[in-house]
Design a protein that fits this description.
about 500 residues, about 60% helix
Length: about 500
């Protein structure tokens, strides 16, 4: 006869394998088709991520993980780690094998992680942050004693936050989901101390610890992230009523089929909880409160900063989405028709993810081909062998034929040749990363003295669009230098903003 421990171990690995298989299917196109997306072009991001307060990412990348990434390997590793996080959350809920499979399919097929997987330079560390945050939540809810119930969760959550700041709110979603699941299934393990006081203490302690360590580490490296975060806070940039309205509209979009591409399916969470609500008895009010907290928890950071976050930062959606479905299934587990929900989610998630990454694939190939023509023209102008180091400044943004994008795709399908309305640093890095040319980046300040000459020149590929200014080859791609000259755009690292 199987012991309780053996059953839990078996269920843990069933959840892991289910999640991994679903992830491999959902992101199969990305695994099999290499693309270079925005932010993947720079070979070293250590100093940049420290300046963004992500010193945990920098630590991992400078020690055990490849910097910036290894094609296929990094994506695969990210999915494996994410599958482990799924198992941990399933274990927190004490799901049996059947419910664990149902939950794991929903968790892994929501294509939100695709918005992170697009950034291979951080997808592996992000997955580690999700796992650490999940482990922290497990310790908060399941363990006892100061060491395991407080110190260990604070350490793991601090490390998770140092990789990607919005991950600090993942325990909130998991705990709200845990409470909701326990209430509707009448498993009364809940106390105010367990689901509110202890988690709040850990959350506050982790935030303070992270902030202090970030200040010390950034001081040591001579970096600062103040401008990066201040730009995100809507409460200080616009009136309160405008901020509240924009946040409410942003949240409503996820329930009115106006979410980022592939995430409209999140609205099913609300429908699942409404149906489950009809099965509750005397604890309807408690279930309603916990369900509301759960379904809105992914938007907690939006409410706090008064800002609109990109899809890649909505890290808690998968938890609320999957547990909403698991709650419904727990009330009607005999209804096999409910398996159509994870099946539909898998098909929808795979189709959405593949469409997004195919858009990036087209954009990458277009950029590669056009950049190759530009590089050939540069070497022809200089009468220099291809592959020789050349000091270049790319002026402005090239108007390219936009690839066919789905609605609301965030950064998918973006072009290096017109990002930031023209960013010479990124275009140079793209050509170097893809071995199209060996570009030595020049700054706008080096060519600004001849701005009249630049303004009067034609646009590439016209004759005369490539010329020399102060020993720097200028390639005129657009009529203006763009938003990113000399590192003045959004407080960016000057070496990435020329």
């Amino acid at each position: 006869m199987k012991t309780n421990v053996t059953i839990k171990i078996n269920t843990f690995f069933i959840s892991f394998l289910t999640s991994l298989i679903v992830l491999l299917i959902t992101y199969g196109f990305e695994l099999s088709h290499f693309t270079l997306s925005i932010d993947e072009e720079f070979s070293n991001n250590i100093a940049h991520t420290i300046s963004m307060g992500r010193w945990g990412h920098a630590l991992l990348k400078s020690t055990i993980l490849p910097e910036p990434f290894v094609p296929f390997y990094t994506e695969l590793l990210s999915l494996v780690i994410l599958a482990f996080s799924c198992s941990v959350i399933s274990h927190i809920l004490s799901l049996d094998s059947q419910h664990s499979i149902f939950f794991s399919i929903l968790y892994s097929s929501l294509p939100q992680f695709g918005y992170q997987l697009q950034f291979s330079n951080q997808s592996d560390t992000l997955a580690i942050a999700v796992l650490l945050s999940s482990v922290s939540t497990y310790l908060i809810l399941k363990e006892k004693g100061v060491l395991m119930n407080f110190i260990a969760p604070v350490i793991t959550l601090t490390l998770a936050t140092s990789i990607y700041q919005s991950i600090i709110f993942l325990p909130v979603s998991i705990i709200a989901s845990y409470a909701c699941y326990m209430i509707i299934n009448k498993e009364y393990e809940l106390t105010l101390k367990r689901v509110i006081i202890n988690p709040l203490i850990v959350l506050i302690s982790s935030s303070i610890t992270y902030s202090l360590l970030t200040k010390i580490i950034q001081w040591y490296f001579g970096k600062s992230s103040e401008s990066y975060f201040l730009n995100m806070i809507g409460w200080i940039h616009q009136p309160a009523d405008v901020t509240i309205k924009s946040v409410l509209i942003f949240i409503a979009d996820y329930f009115s089929f106006n979410a980022p591409y592939g995430l409209n399916i999140y609205a099913i969470s609300l429908l699942s909880l409404l149906i489950a609500f009809t099965t509750t008895g005397r604890n309807r009010l408690l279930f309603l409160l916990s369900a509301t907290a759960m379904i809105l928890s992914p938007f907690l950071m939006n409410m706090i900063i008064g800002g609109i976050l990109p899809a890649r930062a909505m890290n808690c959606l998968a938890v609320s989405f999957a547990i909403s479905g698991a709650i419904l299934f727990s009330q009607y587990s005999g209804k096999k028709i409910l398996w159509i929900i994870p099946l539909f989610s898998l098909l929808y998630g795979t189709a959405s993810s593949s469409r997004l990454f195919y858009t990036d694939y087209l954009s990458y190939n277009q950029d590669y081909n056009v950049s190759s023509f530009i590089a050939n023209d540069i070497y022809r102008y200089l009468d220099t062998p291809s592959g020789s180091p050349v000091r270049v400044y790319f002026y402005g943004a090239l108007k390219t034929d936009s690839v066919d994008k789905p609605s609301n795709p965030d950064m998918f399908g973006s072009s290096f040749l017109n990002w930031d309305a023209g960013n010479s640093a990124r275009i140079s890095a793209f050509m170097n990363a893809t071995a199209i040319a060996k570009i030595v980046p020049a700054s706008f300040a080096e060519v600004n003295s001849e701005i009249k000459k630049i303004n009067s020149a034609p646009l590439w590929p016209s004759k005369g669009s490539i010329f020399t200014v102060n020993n720097v080859v200028v390639v005129k791609l657009g009529q203006s230098p763009g938003n990113c000259i000399n590192g003045v755009y959004k407080g960016n690292d000057p070496t990435r903003c020329l």
